[in-house]
Design a protein that fits this description.
By secondary structure, the chain is an alpha/beta fold. 44% of the residues lie in helices and 10% in strands. It contains nine helices and four strands; from the N terminus they run E-H-E-H-H-H-E-H-H-E-H-H-H. It has a four-stranded parallel sheet with strand order 3-2-1-4, sandwiched between helices. Strand 1, helix 1 and strand 2 form a beta-alpha-beta unit. Helix 5 crosses helix 6. The radius of gyration is 23 Å and the shape is elongated.
Length: 195
């Protein structure tokens, strides 16, 4: 098991699943510990971070929706994540002695660019948020240099795929006129193509 697990989260469902799986391995005697969950959110929209840091009973429902549209990783915006529920994000962070982190737009972009240079592949914004938080945690000593870390990287290579491969539109099998479509009439040629 890694010492630390970093992931960008909106609902936290993936991190909850990682924690639950680690606990099962621990209970089965296969693992000696669960990794510390180090969960990461956008600086502009962070209901989990805010609830954790302020020791709130639940997430605030008044999180500014306008900020969600301006986030680096909009897939990490969830207004009602399962924070307070039994076995939810708060329980998982507490049980794993984990922490919540924030990444702003500039640090997430820098992390995304760094990963592309070092690893030669692009990553999705959510993964860049997690990498930016890992970078900050390592720089401040929140993660010891000798620690083993599992960083959840998602969507690697989509940008390269879009640059290197040009999709081709398929040609239609058969065209139906607007008049025939509205009338619900299928032409004989179309009917023949399905028999």
């Amino acid at each position: 098991m890694p010492d630390y697990y970093f992931q960008g989260v909106g609902s936290g469902a993936g991190a909850i699943a990682v924690h639950e799986a680690a606990r099962r391995l621990l209970d089965a005697g296969v693992a000696d510990r669960t990794p510390r969950l180090m969960l990461c959110q956008n600086a502009l929209f962070a209901p989990l971070y805010d609830a954790w840091r302020a020791d709130l009973g639940d997430v605030r429902t008044s999180t500014d929706a306008a900020n969600a549209a301006r986030c680096f990783a909009d897939e990490l915006t969830n207004r009602r994540p399962p924070y307070i529920a039994a076995g939810g994000v708060r329980d998982c962070i507490t049980q794993s002695a984990g922490e919540m982190f924030l990444a702003d737009h500039a640090s997430a972009r820098a992390a995304q660019d760094l990963f592309a240079v070092v690893e030669g592949i692009d990553i999705e914004p959510a993964a860049a948020v997690a990498l930016a938080c890992l970078r900050d945690a390592a720089a401040t000593g929140a993660v010891p240099r000798e620690a083993t870390v599992l960083l959840n990287i998602t969507g690697g290579g989509r940008g390269r795929f879009a640059r290197e491969f040009r999709p081709e539109a398929s040609r239609p099998v058969h065209l139906v006129s607007t008049r025939d479509l509205r009338a619900g009439v299928f032409t004989k040629d179309l009917q023949a193509s399905f028999t």
